[in-house]
């Protein structure tokens, strides 16, 4: 799912995002409280590596082509943006390096993606970047729900624009 095709009602999608926003706020508060204790070079590296491996390659491939990209990019995104993967990375870091506040970059990134931007794991059935899907808009119509405003950084397809209210 993505932020313009959550396949939930707009209200439940907002509540889903709000849960991650709480995690984002807690990780932000911990970063502020422990600001002087954070080794910033590792923290920045931990924050960036998720997208360097998991998002940027797929985004480049998507923009260079016609939108039909290898499923490998979806897998990279989902693995790198998984709370399970990043918990394993944090555990390995604690074991091999040391427990440290720089690891807050991991939940800060993931909870921010989900809570602030509505970016959840990517489905093979949808474009890599968010594009309004006419089927989702029809579902909302059938449920008698208003269409949410477009969100995020994706573009709308010509066919989806014609289907919007």
Automatic annotation (TrEMBL):
Arranged from A to Z, the UniProt key words for this protein are: Membrane, Transmembrane, Transmembrane helix
Respond yes or no to whether keyword Transmembrane is given for this record. Answer: yes
Please, which domain of life does this record's source organism belong to?
Bacteria
The membrane spanning regions, by residue number, are: 20-36, 43-62, 74-96
Protein name (Swiss-Prot/TrEMBL) = Integral membrane protein
Organism the protein comes from: Streptomyces asiaticus subsp. ignotus
